Amino acid sequence: MAPALLDYAYAQARLRARLGRLAGRRAIETLAAAPDEAGVLRELEARGRPDLEESVLRAFDDVLAMLAGAPAEVVARYRDRREWENVAVLLRGAERGLPADEVLPLLQPVGELGTTPAGRAVAEAGSLAEAVARLPAQPYGELLRRVVAAGPRGAVERFRLEAVAEREAWERIWRAVESLGAADRRSAARVLGAKLDCVGLLRFLRLRTEHGLGPEELLALAIRAGHRIGQRERALLAHEPPSEWSGRLAHTPYADALEPWDDAVAVEARLSRVLRAAARRELAGTPFRIGLILAYLLLIELQASDLRRVREGRRLGRSAEWICTGLVSGDA
Amino acid sequence: MFRATPMERVLLLVPRARFDAALEVVARLGLLHLLDLPAREEWRRGVRPCEVGERRLQAQDALRQVDALIEFFRPPARRPEPLPDVDEVARELPTWLAEHEAIRGERARLHDRIEELERAHASAVALAAAGIAPARLAELRILHPACGWLREQDQPRLEEALARMPHRIVTAASRAEERLLVVVAHARDGAALDRTLESVGFARVWLPGGPHQSGDVSSLERDLDEARRSLAALERRFDRARERLATPLRGARAALGVELQLVDACTLAGRSESAVFLSGWLPAGRAGELREALGEAIGGCFHLRADDPRSLASVMAGRDAVPVQLHNPALLRPFERLTAEYGVPRWREIDPTPLVAVSFCAMFGLMFGDVGQGAVLAAAGAWLARRRAPDAGLLLLQCGVASLAFGFAYGSVFGVEGWLPALWLRPLEDLPRLLRTGAAIGLSMISLSFALGVLNAALRRDWGDAVFGIHGLLAAAAYWGAAAWALRWLVTGEGAEAAARFWPLLMLPLAILLGARVMVGWRSADGDGGSLTTSMLQAVADLADVVIRGVANTVSFVRLAAFAVSHAGLLFAVFALAEMLPSSVGGSVGRALVLVLGNAFVIALEGLIVSIQGVRLVYYEFFSRFHEGTGVRYQPLQLRTSSGEEAAR
Q1: In Å, how far is A327's CA from the nearest CA of chain B?
Q2: What was the pLDDT predicted at B300?
Q3: Residue A48 half-sphere exposure toward CB, CA atoms < 13 A
Q4: N or C, which end of chain B has less CB nearby within 10 Å?
Q5: Which residues are CB-neighbours of A305 under 8 A, at least 6 positions away?
Q6: What whole-number distance in Å separates Cα of residue B482 and Cα of residue A210?
Q7: pTM score, two decimals?
């Protein structure tokens, strides 16, 4: 057997079997019809997914156990990108002066911050700058300390630190993708590259509309990786108004998702559907590539995001219709 | 020997106000193996658990803070005596924390300052070498300059971001993956440039004479010297604090450790409205010591009752386990650890430690018989026993002596077989005899194991198990019948002829055992609708297991002969290697080296293998019929400080 086939034969057989267990649109809509949040939680527990974040991380761990070498590194970094969310939680806690015991339960069990006392040390920092100073050097500490050193003294902006950490998280994954073999790299680009495109588009939209950043800053904070969004597209996104984006990106599958552009949540849901379609396409293609693994993980994450929406919707007393409008999942 | 220390159960009743003092006495005395009273069925309705949540949280919190202080100051080890009071620690802790925070904060500030100044100094030197004067940059009005270090990998990002902004980037210097850049843009784009630089991680250098500072390189050097002097003064202050806080911090650590142990012990007590109950086991006859110590500490305000376990219905019915404390002479104590590793015997069962000691040493010696190597092991054991690890040393010493004794029996000194006459046999020359010896030891050990199984069942008053158990008297009789036939065969060579005579000895006990087990199985399954066939199948499977395991376990001891031969064979190989060397002076040295290293290798490798085999034979073949190791080990509450010594409060 060819090496790639050997690498992925076991994993793809296992994952194919698991794909059938993903909740379909109908199952999620049934969940959305639960009377309240407690009902949703009961249903989730009955289906073996009481903790959504934990079940996603478990899926990553299961996949990691099936892989080795460069593909495992890509999946591990994809999993550990969640550590930037831990950084964001800790920085927010430090900025608001929250006690460590309130912040620590919000950390996800990934990376040094989520699994070792390093997280507590940062959570106990008295200020944003001190929190940055206490971060472990890798993967974000050294980089964020440079950002603090680069800024005006004593006036570090949290959103900028978060944006830099997030950018680094995604680019770290891309650096791992670049160490794959050519065929695997192309396969990863179709799935993970599409994910990075969507994340990048949303970042442009949010940094522009919520923080009012100028084109140079947008480009400095942009994720320089992806499948269809390259340097030319990034320049367009930075310099053209969002109303023009859909027309200027007509050659990409994201054009329809960007119109209308003024509701970021709706844009995110539409982009997620594009992503889901890319993952489904990859699953229908050659099975002995890393794309299949990444597509599976992407679908798991999208499913978790749908279930989270159902739970949140019920907690806030939204209608089943409102919940279902924002769902990404199709029929399993 | 053979029997564990007799125990008695005590129940202590004290007023709530005196409970802390009483518990401290109990812990200091280190005699009482506590029972979880609130969890016990008969107490559940009458008492509630003591509430210690808040006290535990406070102690844990303080302990965490003290640990952080110890981690920071790393004070020298001190033996705090007497331990400070926990309340005193709580009062002092804020002062220590304030001192820690002051030193830590100032140290971080000075380190940052020195790093910044060093960076600025290095940058100023690099800029000067590139012909760029920071003072000239400061004079620019129409242009907005920025000077700093950027990672090489981030420069394309910066260039992409500034693609449509008129600008100029000058590389002044390079070092490991970093570049010192001067970026200049139009003054009207200054704010956008600064924010962009911030987002790409441009570590800005604030140069003397540059846009944001005044002064020159020499003033920078003066600042650097001053910062370094301040840091040195701070380090002296740190050293003084470290010395001053050594005893208080170590004392606080120990006191809080003790406090947490007491809090844990509290959870095992049950409380009513006005009193607290504490129950546990202690060695029989020592309740008086506890009574006396309590009397001294809290006067007569307590009630203590001691019960013999044989008078307790729950113990006799097997619902309560009596903890077991093994007690053997000093020479046998190291073997207690071998027994305990497997598990301690149940109350009233035989303590197998003396048998383990004798059999393990004998088997070790048989497999590893050599006068020289045994002497080396014994000497190493004696050294270890006196210096570092008494138990391990004593064990090694005894194994060494056994090896030495069998060395005389084999006539082997460091593998040389000509120096001493063999008092018994030479392993490589009389293998059949050695194999027969292994089998005979197997027969003896398994027979003893059956006998002890019956005895243990009798001591537990479990008569059914003693007679009809899978390792009971009938199974033992069948084994002995088979053993007698095997012995006869080994001695006289009459196999088939003798079998007819020994057949009833083997089959009769097995037939009775089969019948009994079928009846018992059928009757006990009757209520559940079990059938006679199922019981028969079960009984037949049990008997097959008895027979197969009996044979397998006995044959397993033949490995004793195999390892004795392997030991001699390995030494033979060492000598063969040495003989291959030439007979020159160099060859003689080489030969001596091969012999020494070869012996060392055999001692290390064979010693390890043989001890593993010895443990295996004891655990799996010998213990399996009489020693389940499911007893509860006697573990009295004893206060221990973090360094392991008993707390002196």
Answers
A1: 34
A2: 81
A3: 6
A4: N
A5: A272, A328
A6: 90
A7: 0.55
- Whole-angstrom Cα distance, residue A152 to residue B194? 9
Q: Angle CA(B554)–CA(B365)–CA(B561) in degrees, nearest 5?
A: 40
**Nearest residue to A102 (alpha-carbon basis) of A91, A93, A110:** A93
Please tell me the predicted confidence (pLDDT) of residue B647.
39
Chain B residues near residue A234 by CB distance under 8 angstroms: 160
* Complete DSSP assignment for B455-486: HHHHHTT-HHHHHHSTTSHHHHHHHHHHHHHH
Segments of chain B with pLDDT less than 70: 80, 206-216, 495-496, 524-530, 585, 640-649
Q: Coil, strand, or helix at residue B204? A: strand
What is the pLDDT at residue A332? 44
CA B476 to chain centroid, in Å, comes to: 38
Question: Using a CB-CB distance cutoff of 8 angstroms, which residues of chain A are in contact with residue B201?
Answer: 143, 146-147, 150, 164
Q: What is the mean pLDDT of each run of 10 residues along chain A (332 residues)?
A: 57 74 77 80 74 83 87 92 93 93 91 87 90 90 86 78 94 93 91 94 93 93 93 94 92 91 88 92 83 91 88 84 78 48
Put simply, whether B160 touches A (Cβ < 8 Å) is: yes
A216 near A235, Cβ under 8 Å? no
List CB contacts (< 8 A) between A215 and chain B: 164
Residue B198 forms contact with A (CB below 8 Å) = yes
The radius of gyration of chain A from alpha carbons, rounded to an integer in Å, stands at 20
Check residue A131 and give its pLDDT: 93
Q: Which two tokens stand for residue B329?
A: 């002479």
Q: Which residues contact B527 (CB under 8 A, 6 or more apart)?
A: none
Task: State the pLDDT at residue A312.
Answer: 85
Closest-CA residue of chain A to B164:
A216
